[in-house]
Structures are given as C-alpha cells and as structure tokens.
Amino acid sequence: MYKAIIRPILFWFDPEKVHHFTFSLIRTLSKLPGFKSLFKKMYLVEDKKLERELFGLTFKNPVGLAAGFDKDAKLFNELSNFGFGFIEIGTLTPKPQDGNPKKRLFRLKEDSAIINRMGFNNGGVEEAVERLKKNKGVLIGGNIGKNKVTPNEDAVKDYEICFNALFDYVDYFVVNVSSPNTPNLRALQDKEPLTELLKALQVLNFQKPKSKPILLKIAPDLTNEQLDDIIDIVKTTKIDGVIATNTTISREGLQSKNKSEIGGMSGKPLKSRSTEVIKYLYEKSNKAFPIIGVGGIHSAEDALEKIEAGADLVQLYTGFIYEGPKLITSINKALLQKS
C-alpha cells in the first residue's frame, strides 16, 4: 500500500514539506483510539532472538532509525510503534539554528536516493530535552554537533554542552563530525582534533556516577589511511563504537537530473561504500569495537549484508522513506529466519 499508493502521492510534493506533514499525520493518528495498536500489529516483530546486548544496553531488535529523521525528538515515541529497536535523535546543537537556506532537500527518484544540505537545523538541545522527559521506554541515541557559528577551535565546548544537557535523557551518544553540510565540520575528523574532542567528552563521561556509551559517526569518503586513524582513535579514547556511515559527497554513478545539488547523498548508491567501510573497520580492528551500519539499506538483504560485513546493529533513513515501515518488519523477519 505504501509504495503503490501513499509514496507516489507524497513524492508529488516538496520533500521537506512532506516530512513535516508526515510527522503531523503520524502524531495525529497515534492519538486516535486503536491506531497505536494497529501500527504495532502491522509492523512490530517481537522475539527474544532479535535482542542484542551492546555496550551495556539491551536493544529489542537491531533495526534503528538513523539521526536526521527526528532531529528535535518530536516523534520518537510514535515512531517506535513502527517496530524500530531504537531511535537516534538529532543532530542537536547547543543553540537553536535555522540551518541552510531552502530549498535544501532533494529526491533522486531514479537512484532511490536523497541529497540534503539541511545544516543541523534544530531547535537547540534544551528544547529537545523537554520532549525527551516524556519518553515512554524508547531506547534513544543522542546525536550531537556544533553550531555553525562556532569556530572549530571552540567546537569541544559545543559538544560538551550537548553532552551534559542530554546525559540523563539518552541511552548512548553519537559524536557527529562527518556531516558535509556545516562548513569545516569534517576537518574535525582529522586525528588530532578528533582525539582531543573525544578525550574531552570521556573526561565528562567518567565524572558521572555511571558513564554512557559514546559512538563516533564517520563519513564514507574517508581513505583507508584515515580509517586506520579512526581505529587508533577508538582505541586511544576508549569510546564504545562507530557508526558507519554518514552521507557522501560522491556523485559517482547517479542518473537523476538533480544529482549535482550540493550536500550529502544518502540512499541506494551509498550501499556498497558503506558496507566496504564496515568490513574494513571490522577486519582491520580485529572486531575491536561494535559497529552500527547505515547507508543504502532498502531491503532485508541489504541489512543482512551489513551485518555479515561486521555491523552489530543497522539504521534506516532513506530506505524508510522509499520503502516504508514494512522494511523494518522484513529485516527483523529475515533475521529470525537466519537465527
């Protein structure tokens, strides 16, 4: 029904407007009697065999929603009814910011992809915290970044502000230094500044009564030498894992007419490179840390490929938009068949 009827209608309209409309629709439907139960009956797959234990957390199933979809933690309770095992909110910054000028979100229908140059648009971390206080048992990841106006030499302070504000309300953290849509942000992926940033967050982390997992989200555009640096950094800073990967600046092999739009590309064309990065990190590190695989998952087979390459969990974003919530169900059912 989604791909045959709903998606064609939604795809007639501006993608950013559709995103907000869809949020309003899901929120409204979830308040109506019976709809929450209906969503769960249609999409939720519950089985102990799907549970995953990672960095001290129990994930009900290994299929999560990637950051960027529910940036401001407005819909995590409702979205969990579609069967996600965890929801990652953000990217959040200390102060609210509008992000980049519109139009900034583009569908590449022929490629089953999306290009975005949103620019960390969000209402600020404190606003999100107020919503997270209403969490009804959803496992939440907090994806954090820096404000656009904050120079890189002061970036650590922004990440620390977000870390402290979110600490009591998320289950794990994700340090985002890999978005291509904030000027100079990816420079923080270089070994020295990244080590400094993660060490600073770990200092805060170990001052808490009980520390929380910190993961690093990396770009798919890193070279093998840079991936070797990432492995060293994880070991040095003792963070808990890596999310591979964020969006790409590559446009190789794209067919769509708007393929030259500036921004990060996600979707099917990213699948192979994301899996390559997962496999490289998994094998080169000798399975030293958990990996969450994201990028180009549009089918159960795509998810299984990521897991076989070394991912412990997977996340959806563009695949969720193109394939609908049935994708979550099909991945979990495929995992049960293999168990």
From TrEMBL:
SUPFAM superfamilies: FMN-linked oxidoreductases. It catalyses: (S)-dihydroorotate + a quinone = orotate + a quinol. Pathway: Pyrimidine metabolism; UMP biosynthesis via de novo pathway; orotate from (S)-dihydroorotate (quinone route): step 1/1. It is a peripheral membrane protein. It holds the Pfam family DHO_dh. FMN binds at residues 67-71, 91, 143, 176, 217, 245, 267, 296, 317-318. It is an enzyme of class 1 (oxidoreductase). PROSITE patterns: DHODEHASE_2. Residues 50-336 form the Dihydroorotate dehydrogenase catalytic domain. The keyword Repressor does not apply. Keywords: Cell membrane, Flavoprotein, FMN, Membrane, Oxidoreductase, Pyrimidine biosynthesis. Its cofactor is FMN. Its main location: membrane. Its EC number is 1.3.5.2. HAMAP family: DHO_dh_type2 (MF_00225). This is Dihydroorotate dehydrogenase (quinone). It comes from Winogradskyella poriferorum. The lineage of its organism: Bacteria, Pseudomonadati, Bacteroidota, Flavobacteriia, Flavobacteriales.
